[in-house]
Amino acid sequence: MPRFPIAVQPYTVREAMSIDYVGTLEKLAAIGFEGIELGLPPEGMTLGQQKALLDRLHLQVVGAHASFDNLDVDFRRLTDYLQQTGGQYIAVSMRFDSKDDALRKAEQFNRIGEICREGNATFVYHNHDWEFERFDGESVLDLLLRETDPQLVKYEIDTYWVRKGGEDPASFIRKLQGRCPLLHIKDMEPGEEQFFAEIGEGILDFPAIAEAAASVGTEWLVVEQDFSRRDPFESLAISYRNLQRMDLIRKA
């Protein structure tokens, strides 16, 4: 069974982050996460203080999410931030209202990818389910894969949203040889609601997903749960324990 270092996307605990930034990061590290997708430090904290905190907690910045449905971002500022924190990946998510819109955004992704490469970072696109909408018989995500430069634009595929979009996550990941360095992992409850579930508590086959991820060169598994029926820290701890149980965690 392949093993991976495990990171966390703190959107899962966004409310706690806004109230107690330091305490929240301490709790995430205590669960066992080695990496984190994290942006610039909050108001009142210097970059040096953030780096000292992350060093104390042995949390590696993997990358940062730049925006949702907005490309008016200072990407060079983010590449500078990642150079200083040892991170690599800058992610965005977008919406698309037509094939032409998707083609235009694919061109923008290539340009942003070049900016990121100049700053020794890597641009990645994070999907949801709406990228599986089809225009002229082709899904938006397949169009993006075709129209973006494999050297400039990588993907942070999300297992839950692939399944909600009607595809099998393991099968879809296998289409991404060399293009899926980060994999967002989250599970799905059975039933019509298709609510988010902790890893190993739902219907997705994570051993198969891990095999597919290993086959295409994925570097990190990143745990995220958009909404939870439990306390979100409990949900993250359950996901981490289940990854341990499935023998999918590789420690540094």
TrEMBL record:
Keyword terms of this UniProt record: Isomerase
UniProt keyword Isomerase, yes or no: yes
The keyword Isomerase belongs to this UniProt entry's keyword annotation: yes
Pfam families the record matches: AP_endonuc_2
Residues of the Xylose isomerase-like TIM barrel domain: 25-226
Domain of life assignment: Bacteria
InterPro entries associated with the record: IolE/XylAMocC-like, Xyl_isomerase-like_sf, Xyl_isomerase-like_TIM-brl
Single GO MF annotation: isomerase activity
Protein name per Swiss-Prot or TrEMBL: Sugar phosphate isomerase/epimerase
Organism: Cohnella terricola
Lineage summary: Bacteria, Bacillati, Bacillota, Bacilli, Bacillales
